[in-house]
């Protein structure tokens, strides 16, 4: 009877250990913050994720109210922090902006999201 519990325990142990491997990179914090109003236009958008991301498979696009991209270059991780992804932006006029992000975590799981911020006139 004890032998039947050994395979069950092994399967449960395997499932518990693999759940750690299925982590996803979700937005933790951002600058400017989602739904915030900033006094001065930022020169870059930065997002901190809950897991490390692969920069070559992750992106940030910033659009103005007309849907035109105002981000410049490619998104990149910080040299010492693969949980931080950022991208430069051109000169931002007062108004609302939309940030669209796609992240591929270091374990290859993909997440995405959007948020808005406003540059005060």
Describe this structure in words.
It is elongated, with a radius of gyration of 20 Å. 17% of the residues are buried. The strands form two sheets. A four-stranded antiparallel sheet has the order 1-3-6-5, with no helix packed on it. Strands 2-8-7-4 form a four-stranded mixed sheet, with no helix packed on it. The longest helix is centred in the first third of the chain and has 20 residues. Helix content is 17%, strand content 46%. It has one helix and eight strands, in the order H-E-E-E-E-E-E-E-E. It has one domain: Immunoglobulin-like, CATH 2.60.40.1220.
Give me some keywords for this one.
121 residues; alpha+beta; Immunoglobulin-like; four-stranded antiparallel sheet; four-stranded mixed sheet; 1 helix; 8 strands
Q: Under the CATH scheme, which architecture would be assigned?
A: Sandwich
Oligomeric state of the chains in view: single chain
Helix coverage percent of residues?
A: 10-25%
The tally of strands reads 8
Main sheet: strands, sense, barrel? 4 strands, antiparallel
Order of helices and strands: HEEEEEEEE
